[in-house]
């Protein structure tokens, strides 16, 4: 429920007040968003249609692409439209909806990355038991639990946001609604809420990053016992995952594990993990994965062949 306050809408200051730079922002982020949609949808369609990409790793990659697409869509379209708008107004309800979407899909991406690390750990450390441990039913249960955990996390964030009273000003020094910029506008002492934010979002980001790095360290150490070909394949897969983890968690930890202070680079750091990472993920997973590239070639070759025969 909306608290008793005089603010019914917010004004987003965006990335830059300069009109020329705003046009550059429009072009750059329109290209990034289109690339995100095309890349992730291509992965989704390929995994769903291909019979060779039925392993748990690609099952989780399918949901990572869904989370990436939704995560970027919760931010990018508004950023693109606002870059051409003189006044970037967002309603109170729209702002709260964006907070909810940002956290549910961002948290889902975190959980899926953890599941992908677990899958690689089992595949490399327990190869004989891997088909039994990571069977289809188990993977489905893990994804359902990830969605439930993401929903609970996002509900915690939105409850904190809804408890904030706003009495003006209503200028958000950001390009999207999130708890950190909203805390600066609240007409109350936000120390405890910021502490809850750090203990929630900050703890999830930091602990997940540590868990992932430890798991990949163990995985890489265990590769010494594999054949040269097996090491090369596993190393290629794990390297892709590690790159994604660093690109996503580095900015998140910077944003969510600190006191409520503002730094000049905050907006650009936020751009990197809200816009940049969803764009880079499909490139990393397709360019470094021979199985995905081969499946894509076969899929589109079959479609082009079938179309030419009509």
TrEMBL record:
Q: Gene Ontology terms, cellular component aspect?
A: plasma membrane
Where in or outside the cell it occurs: the entry states: Cell membrane; Membrane
Which Pfam families does the entry mention? 7tm_4
Q: Which InterPro entries match?
A: GPCR_Rhodpsn, GPCR_Rhodpsn_7TM, Olfact_rcpt, Olfactory_Receptors
* Alphabetical UniProt keywords: Cell membrane, G-protein coupled receptor, Membrane, Olfaction, Receptor, Sensory transduction, Transducer, Transmembrane, Transmembrane helix
**Topological relation to the membrane, as annotated:** Multi-pass membrane protein
The residue ranges crossing the membrane are: 24-45, 57-80, 100-118, 138-162, 191-218, 238-256, 268-287
> GO molecular-function annotation terms?
G protein-coupled receptor activity; olfactory receptor activity
Functionally, this protein is described as follows:
Putative odorant or sperm cell receptor.
Please report which protein family the annotation says this sequence is part of: Belongs to the G-protein coupled receptor 1 family.
Tell me the protein's name: Olfactory receptor
Source organism per entry reads Sus scrofa (Pig)
């Amino acid at each position: 429920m909306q608290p008793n306050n005089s603010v019914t809408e917010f004004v987003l200051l965006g990335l830059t007040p300069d009109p020329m730079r705003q046009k550059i922002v429009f072009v750059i982020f329109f290209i990034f968003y289109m690339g995100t949609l095309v890349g992730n949808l291509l992965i989704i369609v390929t995994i769903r249609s291909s019979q060779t990409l039925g392993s748990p790793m690609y099952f989780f990659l399918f949901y990572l692409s869904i989370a990436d697409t939704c995560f970027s869509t919760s931010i990018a379209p508004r950023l693109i439209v606002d870059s051409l708008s003189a006044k970037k107004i967002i309603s109170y309800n729209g702002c709260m909806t964006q907070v909810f979407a940002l956290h549910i899909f961002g948290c889902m991406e975190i959980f899926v990355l953890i599941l992908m690390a677990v899958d690689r750990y089992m595949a490399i450390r327990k190869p004989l038991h891997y088909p039994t441990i990571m069977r289809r039913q188990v993977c489905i249960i893990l994804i359902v639990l990830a969605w439930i955990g993401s929903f609970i996390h996002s509900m915690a964030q939105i409850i904190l946001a809804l408890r904030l009273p706003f009495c003006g000003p209503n200028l958000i020094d950001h390009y999207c609604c999130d708890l950190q910029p909203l805390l600066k506008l609240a007409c109350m002492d936000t120390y405890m809420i910021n502490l809850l934010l750090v203990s929630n979002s900050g703890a999830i980001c930091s602990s997940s990053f540590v868990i992932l790095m430890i798991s990949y360290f163990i995985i890489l150490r265990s590769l010494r016992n594999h054949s040269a070909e097996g090491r090369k394949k596993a190393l290629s897969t794990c390297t892709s995952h590690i790159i994604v983890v660093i690109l996503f968690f580095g900015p998140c930890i910077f944003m969510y594990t600190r006191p409520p202070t503002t730094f000049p680079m905050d907006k650009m750091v936020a751009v990197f993990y809200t816009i940049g990472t969803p764009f880079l993920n499909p490139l990393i997973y397709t360019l470094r994965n021979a199985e995905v590239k081969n499946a894509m070639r076969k899929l589109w070759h079959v479609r082009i062949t079938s179309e030419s025969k009509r």
